[in-house]
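Handout for the seminar on molecular recognition.
Each group receives one record of this type.
Step one: identify the two inputs.
Step two: read the structure output and locate the region that could contact iron/sulfur cluster.
Step three: write two sentences on what you found, then compare them with the reference statements printed after the record.
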Amino acid sequence: MTRKLFIKTYGCQMNAYDSARIADVMAPHGYSLVDDAAGADMVVLNTCHIREKAAEKVYSELGRLRRAKEEKAANGERMLIAVAGCVAQAEGEEMIVRAPLVDIVVGPQVYHRLPEMVAKLSRGEGRALDTEFPAMDKFDALPGTKTAPGPTAFLTVQEGCDKFCTFCVVPYTRGAEYSRSVAQIEAEARHVADLGVKELTLLGQNVNAYHGIGPDGEPWGLGRLIRRLAKIDEIARLRYTTSHPRDMSDELIDAHAHEPKLMPYLHLPVQSGSDRVLEAMNRGHTAEDYKRLVERIRRARPDIALSSDFIVGFPGETDEDFEATMALIRDVGYAQAFSFKYSPRPGTPAAVARKQIADNVKEDRLAGLQDLLRRQADTFAAACVGREMDVLFEHRGRYADQLVGRSPYLQPVHARAPERLLGRLARVRLVEAKSNSMAGELADMAVAL
Ligand code: SF4
């Protein structure tokens, strides 16, 4: 009997990848994905714990699910509710107490055990909680993807983090750094390539710390892994995220210089431009180190575009510290960037630090920083107008003969294009920069790359 499975994903791309794998895990047990929680037999909330708001969102969503679950029960049916991901990992027991309507609480390292937990529930063995960091690699227990994810896909190559930045929960919710073997990653890449994937984004909380065992029995770095995956003919593009400046190896920078399938777009979080704040964050590098690294990367790949992450209002941040961040942004110049007000996370050192910054000061600094970043993004987009780029068309646009895809710089590009180019790369001339996308026209209708 087919059962309806609804998965709501919060947070990062790795959660998006995990949600797709959770669907793969439940499919052999008769669960197929639906787009709406109403009427679902099982609802999975795959959660994010990175900021306060993110965790609270889960409890308000559970509040909304209460009625749907009660309506199912009134019809003599059962709706299972499972909370997965980083809030499940961080709150485990507390969630079981705080949210009685939740049947399963499962951490990000053990979601391959969901079928067993559901079976135990159906045998009346009560609510299930599993937030273990198992010795055995969950990836060995995950069934292969059956459904074509479209022309682009995420692929987790590394998980966890050993950096312990003082504001971050990841080392506590995702555990120690773990890298999958090259053989396992290559097999999954070939599998999704056979399903029509043209672009792979390699994922890791600290992806450039990748050190998986290669076929020669030696640890391989991310640069070497990328060159290996680039040998898969069907894969036309490779990307990776999220990196730490301290793990940008020569080998990886060399891959940017010499591997044409590696896209010229790098997300390299710096968080702050103040050495005092970087030290308090335990980032392990200075603003000068970061700028020198950016210069090395730009020498290797002059057409590369950069994005980053910024936190304003970190405990103790002064006006001078904030100005140092603004100065770094002006020096580097970003095509894109994500910026946040510091949010104290339970269990992290910075959450109990003295000199917490007032929210109105955070708001002001964030507004100033986002204005500068917005102007830089607009300048970058404007500089792309008139250039020709390869665009991978991913889906239909708003208009009948319009397709939407991504440029090498991850810019959304919409253009009038024939249906047959869906899932394919085509040369496009960028003709206009819009607020969050580019308008383009096919450079050559006849030639579909
Ligand atoms: S490197 Fe990234 S994931 Fe790791 S602790 Fe720092 S911010 Fe968190």
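Reference statements: The longest strand covers residues 388-396. The pocket of iron/sulfur cluster is lined by residues 161, 163-165, 168, 170-171, 205-206, 244 (CB under 6 Å).
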